[in-house]
Amino acid sequence: MYKLIASDLDGTLLRANKTISEYSKKVLKDNNDNFIFVPVTGKILGKTLEILKELEGMDYVVAINGSVIYDVKKEEIIYDVPLKREDCIKLFDLTDEYTDIFTLCTHNKWIKSYKVNKGRVEEHTFFVENMRGHIEVLDEEIYRINIYLLDEYEEKYLKMKEEIEKIGFHVYLIRSTDGRPGLISVTSKEVSKKRALDKVLELENVKWDETVVFGDNQNDKGMLMKAGYSVAMKNAPDHIKDITDDVTENTNDEDGVAKYIEEKLGEKLCIN
Length: 272
Known about the structure:
The chain is an alpha/beta fold. It folds into 2 domains: 156 residues, Rossmann fold, CATH 3.40.50.1000; 104 residues, Hypothetical Protein, Haloacid Dehalogenase-like Hydrolase, Chain: A, domain 2 (2-Layer Sandwich). Helix content is 31%, strand content 26%. The strands form 3 sheets. Strands 8-7-6-9-11-10 form a 6-stranded mixed β-sheet, with helices on one face. The longest helix is centred in the middle third of the chain and has 14 residues.
């Protein structure tokens, strides 16, 4: 029997328009007494709670790729792994010459500085001119940094990844759809979705073999491989499908997670 379900959001529980269907909301609400439900996402906490505000049945939210755990019932952050402020300054000094956009992530907003491309102006996003000075005086914890380099420094991208890792960061190199480097995403080496779920399972006295995990991408790999039962989305790349126990018959735009829970997991779910 499975006691806990963890699900990624983008490309998994959320549709392409970043919403959850009424059908998915109903399935999760109707089965609320049967399992602990934990959304696990790379999004900032503030934006995640905004998207999920009408979703009943959540127990915890894991945000920023595992940097933050939020207790929904207590309405508070119960675990976090921020970046050291002095390391953030080292990172800025190392990359400033080559950077187009340098972005800090707190638990509820993005703070950006830019040289050429201002990028999308979205909710929860603020722009500053003196990023180094802002890092020094910011009165919030920093959990993640995204670095977009100027096009002429593409080759520098890969070399810089090694230098950043030497400071003590965990580095994701994210490529655009045409294969070119898109951005460098930086978190603490102590952060992953899997490690955050370790904490949730400890709090709830649940074992990994009593969990089901849904995911669709590389940053879901650790928790998918550790889960008692792992499910990749129909829309996931093959290298993710290859490591899971099963694949949904429907995509994220077709309520793949909710239909799988209702049609294939119903009798296998029990908290007690």
